[in-house]
Amino acid sequence: MFNRESPDLFAARVGIRRALRGEADFEIVTPGDSKTRRAGVLNWPEQVKQLLGGVDGFVVADDGVTDSRWSVSRLRISGTTSVIGVIPTTGSEGQEKRATFTSTHPHTGLVALVRASAGASVMVTVDGAPTMQTIPASTSWQEIPVTGLSNSTHTVAVSSMGDTFEVLGYRMTYPTPRLKISNPARSSTNAVDWAPGSARWSAVIDGPATDPGLIISGLGTNSATDLAALTTYYNGLAALNVPVLVASPGGLGNTDRPRGNVEPMMNRLYQLAQEHDQPLIDFEKVIGQYTAAAAAGLMSDTVHESTRGLQLEALAVVSLLAG
Questions:
Q1: Which of 79, 204, 218, 226 is geometrically suited to a Cys-Cys bond with 36, CB 3.0 to 4.6 A?
Q2: CATH numbers and ranges of domains, the chain
Q3: Is the pTM of this model over 0.90?
Q4: Angle of helix 227-239 relative to helix 259-275, nearest 10 degrees?
């Protein structure tokens, strides 16, 4: 842990405690790459959510591979890492596109974020009951509120025949203040994809009406050879005046991510944390470099942690945030 005395860390601890007491909402957002997202295993943000008793904040639309709570029809994850949410599949013109999410935490509403550059009629189906909405032709995300639900889990689908229909995701709402954790990380993304002003930045970092209470940024692994972009990204986070916790990756140093590349990146993360007076959690000090981590069963492949490795990282984050 670096810069444990940072004001950002103290502000985050106060916000988390207030949320856990039901006094105010507090949202933690975890932008990152595949080491943060981790398809098919219990990633560290999800484990932090469980350990702290948190709930879903913003849930990015998925094709069901990374997040099994989603299912889609004639929609897909874009092949472009800068695009967020799901977009129509090739050949789906004139056919219904649908994105369905089944929640795991009781909630009383949500806001669906969708768009269609050509405009569209959108069917919102809640637990089998449909209602029709119309959204204007726009490149901006349009909000469709769903309110008045019982405080329980729900299955909510948005569908449209519109050929330009896209779904960004759902922002969940609750009857009382809660600690919310949103994980918009996506595999293969780097600092350029998350740069200030990018689609991902505008959608999940600086786009919502209410700023997050804390940003835990796991970016770095895919930006080891582009330190200028990494610097621009973290400088942008600092300019938001929102508490930031920098997460420096662990388990690296094999032939895929040689030490000669990752060490300058890690050093730059420390420098940026110092420049902006932000706390930094070093996952390499939690699980070690690749060889040691793999020998201890903490790696699932040459880059990514196993469930056990992710559990240790989650415990380190919770220990830091709990004070």
A1: 218
A2: 1-54+178-323 (3.40.50.1110), 58-175 (2.60.120.260)
A3: yes
A4: 20
